Structure formats: structure tokens, C-alpha cells
Amino acid sequence: MSHLDIALIGAGRMGQVHGPNAARSPGLRVKYVVDPREDLARAMAARTGAAVATLGHALDDPQIGGVLVCSSTDRHLEQSLAALEKGKAVFCEKPVDLDPERARRALPRFEGARFVLGFNRRYDPHFLALKRQLDSGAIGSLESLHIVNHDPAAPPAGFIPTSGGLFKDFTIHDLDLARWLLGEEPAELFTAASCLVDPEIGRLGDVDTARTVLKTVSGRLCVISNTRRSGCGYDQRVEAFGSRGMLAAGNPAHNTVRTLTEAGEAVAPIAGSFVDRYVDSYRNQMAHFCEVAHGRAQPRTGFADGLAALVLAQACQASAEGGRTINLREWS
């Protein structure tokens, strides 16, 4: 398979996930790493066999066919647009931006683009299997969903001010997952939120625990459970309830060994981080981007999906702050 030269923008937390995956992909080659933090850029360049470059140099190189935008959230939109204007295929971490209105104005510029958005849950083998069963009618007509997304521990306080907050940084994954599984757009939304894990998160103006209820026009319901502290690992579960039964995708354990003694039963722990839990998902996502970049596939998660989830995340925040149900058909 011929390879496509790409540039990695951002060598931080998500760049350290996507850069090595791209380097291992048979159809991609990481040629440049772009990051103002020289130590991170050089370490990632050494890890992927790339060279350190400026953004301008990377985008001006005609041999660069694709770009991975893994920079800070507030740079996602402008850097994606800059890459598209140079004719590059783009993979962008979520969210597309922090401002729904700015993202809405940019939407026409992404129509027909080779652009893949990093909603990795849609590429997870367990959730994909649940989706296939759901679409096959295995449990009849879908009536309600329960989505659990619990972090093992709160992030460093310094992460909060630039993260976009719980809803745009964290819940946005679940909002996209809900749209995908429900098969309908939510029409109403209600969110209740608190700061129960770390008082410093509250002092910085964010929340760390939330429950969101979505309702579609047909009446389907979805409950999303979020917390920054699970106490048991990276807790990621989906339950779908239908007219003839239910589907459940649980937490994969490190192994399937069960130990039974007089003290009871013990099993292996679940994944302790998002990197461990979604290792297959991230690999599958990069393989999909490779196909899109080479022109062999259409994006499964695009800019319009990012905008829709961003609008819902903004509505979650407004609902939590105002203690009210948001009518999404009138929300803008």
C-alpha cells in the first residue's frame, strides 16, 4: 500500500495517542510534528520518525496529504480550516470548537471535505457490536438508552480552564453516542450538575458530576451519567432497552480469570484510563482516516456531527445553570 505523508499538530495528550497510531498505519507516514513546546515536539518526532516543523512549513509542503489536528481545543477550527484550504485531508480531535455559532458559520466550508472528527466511541468494537444488534431489530424497537461515562479520577486543576468544561470536553462524547444510537435527533434536554469530586474544579467555574436526560420527538429517552471520579477505573457502559429486550455493552476487564475463595469472588480490574479502554477504537479510527485521506471512504464522523454535539453540550450547560428543560427545536 502506498503511504500518505502527514503532519501531526500537537504532541500533547491526544497527539501522543494519534501520532504513534498514524506512524503504525501502513498507509500513513508522519513526516512532521508541530508543537510550540519544543521538548514534546522533539520527543514525538523521535518516536514517530518525523521531523520537527512549524505549522506554516508543514502546510506549505505539497507532499503533505493529511494533517492530524491534536492541538488545544481553541485552535481546532482555525487549524482544520487552514489545512483544508491547502488541500489536505484532516483528522481533528473533538470538539470542533468551543463556540457553536462560530462552528455553524464554518459548516459550509467543510461540506464534501475529507474531514474526520475524533468521536472515537463510534469506532469501539463493543459499541459497534451493540449498534449492529440494535439496527438488526434484535430487541425490537428502541425505547430508551443509558450511557455511563465515568473517569477514574479528576484531571489536574490546570486542565480545567482550557478544556471547555465538563460538557464540551467530556459529555460531548456521550451526546454524539446518543445521537448515533437513538437514530433520531433529541428534541428536549435537561441536565442537573454538581461539583462533588474536587472543590477546585468548582472554584474554577466548572462541574464534575452530571446527569442528562434527552428526549426525541418520538419519545425515546436517553440518560447520560457523568462523573470525574468512579472509584473503580474507567467506567464505560451502554444499555439499550427495546420492545423485546435489552442490549448491554459493559466494561472489558484486563482478563477473564475469576478467583473464588471463602472470601468470595474476585475478578480482574477494568481499564484505568481512556487510552487503555479505547486502544482498539483509536486504532480503528486512524485506519478509517487513512481510507478517507486516500479517497477510498467517506467520513463516518464529520464536521456536522461535531456541530450537533457541540450545540447539545452548550444546551447541557445552559440547562444545568438555569435548572430548566431546553427545547432544542427552539434552541440556537
Identify the notable features of this structure and list them briefly:
single chain, 332 residues, 7-stranded mixed β-sheet, 25% strand, 6-stranded parallel β-sheet
Structural overview:
The protein has 332 residues and is an alpha/beta fold. It contains 12 helices and 15 strands. The chain has helices at residues 15-24, 38-48, 55-60, 76-85, 100-106, 125-135, 160-163, 165-182, 199-203, 274-277, 279-293, 303-322, and strands at 4-9, 28-34, 51-52, 64-69, 89-92, 115-117, 142-150, 186-194, 209-216, 221-227, 235-242, 245-249, 258-261, 264-267, 326-327. Strands 12-11-7-10-9-8-15 form a 7-stranded mixed β-sheet. A 6-stranded parallel β-sheet has the order 3-2-1-4-5-6, with helices on both faces. It has a two-stranded antiparallel sheet with strand order 13-14. α1 packs across α11 and α8 packs across α12. The longest helix is centred in the last third of the chain and has 20 residues, at 303-322. The termini are far apart. 45% of the residues are buried. The model has no long low-confidence stretch (mean pLDDT 96).
